[in-house]
Amino acid sequence: MFQLGKTIVSEDIIEKDFVCNLSACKGACCVDGEAGAPLDKEEAKILEEIYPKVKPFLRKEGIAVIEKEGTWVTSEWGELETPLLDGKDCAYVIFDEKKTALCGIEEAYNSGAIDWKKPVSCHLYPIRVKDYSEFSAVNYHKWEICDDACTLGKELQVPVYKFVKQALVRKFGQNWYDELEKVAEKHLKTL
User: Fold this and answer.
1) Cα(162)–Cα(120) distance, rounded to whole angstroms?
2) Burial 80-98 (b: 16+ CB within 10 A, else e)
3) What span, in angstroms and rounded, lies between the C-alpha atoms of 100 and 169?
4) Nearest-angstrom CA–CA distance, 88 and 173
5) How many helices (H) and strands (E) does the chain have?
6) Distance CA 11, CA 1 (A)
7) Distance between CA 93 and CA 85 in Å, rounded?
């Protein structure tokens, strides 16, 4: 672990390789698991505001859940997250013709209907950020459904932090990312 500003960062994001391989996993991270995508308060507000523009991109099952439970829910641990369909699929998940899970929010963004890509927790994956009162912990989340992404990342030699560069800049800013790159270069020379 090392400190960058008000973050404590795991070396795994530098040492591990990762490139999403949707053709292999079919977007399993959006349909497996025990919780929806983590949200902060600002993102919950954004979801409420953009929902009318995102709705046309969603499946009827997802719309039904969102209209029953809301555009976001509070978990039993008091954390904000996207609602789930039958305790599995994120309510915002859609599927393409190959049965690959995609984000309906991101599809609305890609079409120009909205200017917000998706929750930053989704954009950052496989990095998870846990906020504490004095700092944020930035960790690599290893999940077996992403084994193909690890294999592809290793083949292409793309470390996790480079794969999620855009999301890290979105979350922490360009200066933070520039410092991360400097730390990564030094760290990799010592391996």
Assistant:
1) 16
2) bbbbbbeeebbbbbbbeee
3) 27
4) 32
5) 10, 10
6) 6
7) 9
Tens of pLDDT, residue by residue over 23-33, are 888 888 888 87
Per-residue pLDDT of the chain (191 residues; tens, 9 = 90+): 999 999 999 999 999 999 998 888 888 888 887 788 999 999 999 999 999 999 999 999 999 999 999 999 999 889 999 999 988 899 999 999 999 999 999 999 999 999 999 999 999 999 999 888 899 999 999 888 889 899 999 999 999 999 999 999 999 999 999 999 999 998 877 77
Which amino acid type is present at position 40?
Answer: D
Closest CA to 50 of 125, 106, 121: 106
As a whole number of angstroms, the distance between CA 94 and CA 38 comes to: 18
Buried b (16+ CB within 10 A) or exposed e, 30-67: bbebeebbbbeeebbebbeebbebbbebbbeebbebbe
Quote the radius of gyration of the chain (alpha carbons, Å): 17
126 and 141 Cβ atoms separated by less than 8 Å:
yes
For tokens 């369909």, what's the residue?
85
* pTM of the full structure: 0.87
171: closest CA among 118, 93, 133? Answer: 118
